Amino acid sequence: MSSAARPRSYEFVLLGLLVLLWGGVGLNRIGLGFIFPQLKAAFGMANWQASLLISGTSVTWAVSSWAGGWLSDRYGRRRVLLPALAFICIATAAMGATWSFLSMFLVRDLLGIGDGVGWSVGEATVSEEVAARRRGVSQALFTAGYTLIGAGAGALIITSLSAHLGWRWVFPVIAAAMVPAVIALALIMREPPVHRAHRPADWRAAARLLRNPSLLRLTIMGCAILSWLQVFAGFDHSFLVETRHFSPLAAGEIASAWGFAGAVGSVLLPLASDYWGRRPVVLAAALACAASLAAYVFGGFDQPMMQLLLGFSGFCGFGLLPLVLATCVSESVGAEERGAALGITNFFGVLVGTTLMPFIAGLLADAIGMKAALGIPILAQLVVAGIILAIGETAPRVVARRGEAARQAV
Asked: Among residues of the chain, what percentage have pLDDT more than 70?
């Protein structure tokens, strides 16, 4: 069945389920940071060890994101995505049964296999199943699930669950909540109507995508944005509790502003970029995110002001995630290479941004302090602002408008 022949409701139901499931991934990824103070006490971990619980998952995420996108280009989105989502549920629940740093590290490594496939294949599915005019906002909604559920609601849900039930029950509850959405997706999802060329498998062809200058620059920007995301997610709760001496519940309330405002930004900024262009929106958001985050880390404000600053930073920073990592990438290549392009940019972004940089942040936190670690997300946003100036505009409305103006000027 072609996408045109499918009822419009199919597009919205599919997107809704993918948003919920990607939110579950946000809970198992970002949620770990909300219980780091308890985990460090339970397992006797230093900050550099806590950072490895982020970095370890990121290595397998990076590999599976690239591999999953590449495989789904050839064999179909559905048959790659559904097994990965089922595996995510199993690995998420297993986190509650770990008994040491090493056992948690190994389970988190396994979890990354499913999470990485979810990103590249999920974004490719959304790109192909929604109408082209709604692609930017639809990919933004998919990404917003991670932000709204993982960072916003997750800050309240996870701190509350861990306070009342203990941290071991947090992740089995999350996994149980994801299972009905996985079953529903398996029942309604059809293969996107994109022709899959039966070509010999060639990993070198996927690697050659980085010869595209815009894709290479977007990959570097992806490294920076994911550094902002994972370093901050991993160490903000410890910063609030250990450095600023807020209670764990108050820290959760502050952190929730990051996620809730970020979910709004994840939708509104890509929507604005559909009309005004990707470049100006990315530039303004990155500079605003860096400035507000610097005030948050170094300003010493009280809880209401901390929430306001963090909310504004989240609005801008999370708005960049779908724009740079999904929409701009999707618009830089043809449909036959979209899954591989999303996978390869995410591969390098994750290796640097969520594998290497959290580990460096952990070392800085142990050697200098939490404020030094949280300087990394600030610098990362400045990198994004600098590189976007070297990338051409890809927003269809803006490109068409400029083309029409050029034709009229001739």
From this structure: 93
